């Protein structure tokens, strides 16, 4: 298994230590490995442009709106 040396901010180191002390992980190595794996699997890169710009969102909302004053032909009939 490849190994890597990393420097962590003090607050992250404290959180990892607390997780180990609380029994969430067997030891520090397991905690770092699992947390890093979870982070990598949660981070997804997608080459397709799924993000829409604010202008696209505005246009979509405006296009989806319907004028409440517009009546359908079938709605104009009165029933008694």
TrEMBL record:
Pfam families: DUF7120
Bias (Polar residues): 43-52
Region (Disordered): 43-80
Biased composition regions of type Basic and acidic residues, renumbered to the chain: 70-80
Record InterPro entries: DUF7120
Protein name in UniProt: CopG family transcriptional regulator
